[in-house]
Each structure stands twice: as C-alpha cells, then as structure tokens.
Amino acid sequence: MPKQKTHKGARKRLGFTGRGKLLRRKGNINNFRRKKHRRSKGQIDEMMVVHPSLRRRLRKLLPYGR
Known about the structure:
This protein is α+β, with helices and mostly antiparallel strands. It has helices at 8-13, 38-44, 52-61, and strands spanning 15-16, 22-25, 47-49. Strands 1-2-3 form a three-stranded antiparallel β-sheet. The radius of gyration is 15 Å and the shape is elongated. The mean pLDDT is 89.
C-alpha cells in the first residue's frame, strides 16, 4: 500500500502537544498591531488547542502526527 502524503501547509501551521492534541496559532495578529494593547498581543502569541469539530479533518492532513 502506498504511503500517505502529509499536507505541507498544515505541517507548517499546526503542531501537537505531548498528549497528541492539535495546536494552532491564534488569528488577528498581522494587521493593526499599533492599535492593540501589549497584553492582547502577548495573548495572541500563545498556541491554542484546535476545536473538536475540526480535529478529524485536520488529522487526515497530518497522517504521521501523534
């Protein structure tokens, strides 16, 4: 049986926790940075766990992730 291919865009954008949960970056960081408070920009830098409804779709893009 042939190998499955990893989706390169998903590989660059998503990560895994030690327990196998998918992580993603938060949005709203690229535009209007001067208007945002320092605290809110710091919170945007943190990674966030992917919502359960999207998890199954994204796992197909990363077949060899945890």
